[in-house]
Design a protein that fits this description.
2 domains, Immunoglobulin-like, mainly beta, 6-stranded antiparallel β-sheet
Length: about 240
């Protein structure tokens, strides 16, 4: 009997260890980044790939970090090191890299590198600018991404709701600011397939959705999501 119990415990332990060692499937973001990293072979100018900014640095440093303007240079993001291997899987070279998701509607990034504790411009990027606010030279990277129209706060207390679709549609707006009455506000087609509505809203957190007929759907230009009390998917917006 003891032998049977021992065997059962060992089998359970093996199953537990196997489950613990089974890797979780990669997310879409992790797959995107893995594809980008696989293509990095040398240090060079920053570039854009699939909505990500890719920065690289020479292998000789002990540590490389980056701080960017849209975070007010408050955070230093550490680079990772990629080893490049030959056909015998021997390390032949290496390169530092950092992959950053581009914020929405970003046309340029001003940044500084931190190489072995020293703040400096990017030696691989010849584009630099002087910042009067910091009295420092900054590296500048033009992302060359066309600004996309999206729902956003355009002025203090005013939100511009944007929907992109087919020309000639009838698109309404409803949310917790209308007690989910979707017949109060209708978006205006400002150009073929582009609909907008400017709405004053006080500071707060708002749930909303677009409507066509009796069907509601979230705002595709706003990635923030929530669930309404009746279980439907809606968009979430914070007005400061």
């Amino acid at each position: 009997m003891k032998r049977l119990i021992f065997c059962a415990l060992m089998l359970a332990l093996q199953i537990t260890v196997f489950a613990a060692e089974t890797p979780a499937p990669l997310t879409d973001t992790e797959l995107d980044i893995a594809e980008i990293v696989a293509e990095i072979q040398t240090a060079g100018k920053p570039y854009v790939k699939n909505g990500y900014a890719v920065f690289t640095a020479d292998k000789n440093a002990r540590h490389v970090g980056i701080a960017v303007d849209f975070e007010n240079f408050n955070t230093i993001h550490s680079f990772m090191k990629k080893n490049l291997r030959d056909e015998n899987y021997e390390i032949k070279d290496s390169v530092y890299f950092y992959v950053m998701r581009l914020p929405k509607n970003t046309s340029q990034i001003d940044y500084r590198l931190v190489i072995d504790g020293l703040w400096t411009v990017d030696p691989n990027n010849p584009q630099t600018v002087y910042s009067p606010e910091t009295s420092l030279m900054l590296s500048r990277f033009y992302t060359n991404i066309e600004k996309e129209e999206a729902t956003e706060t355009i002025s203090s207390g005013t939100v511009r709701f944007v929907y992109k679709g087919k020309s000639g549609e009838s698109i309404r707006l409803g949310g917790n600011f209308t007690n989910w009455d979707s017949w109060i506000y209708k978006l205006v087609e400002v150009s073929p397939g582009t609909y907008q509505l400017d709405l004053p809203l006080p500071p707060g957190t708002y749930e909303y959705a677009f409507y066509t007929g009796m069907t509601s759907f979230p705002d595709e230009s706003n990635p923030e999501r929530c669930y309404t009390n009746d279980g439907k998917v809606a968009s979430l917006l914070v007005v400061n």
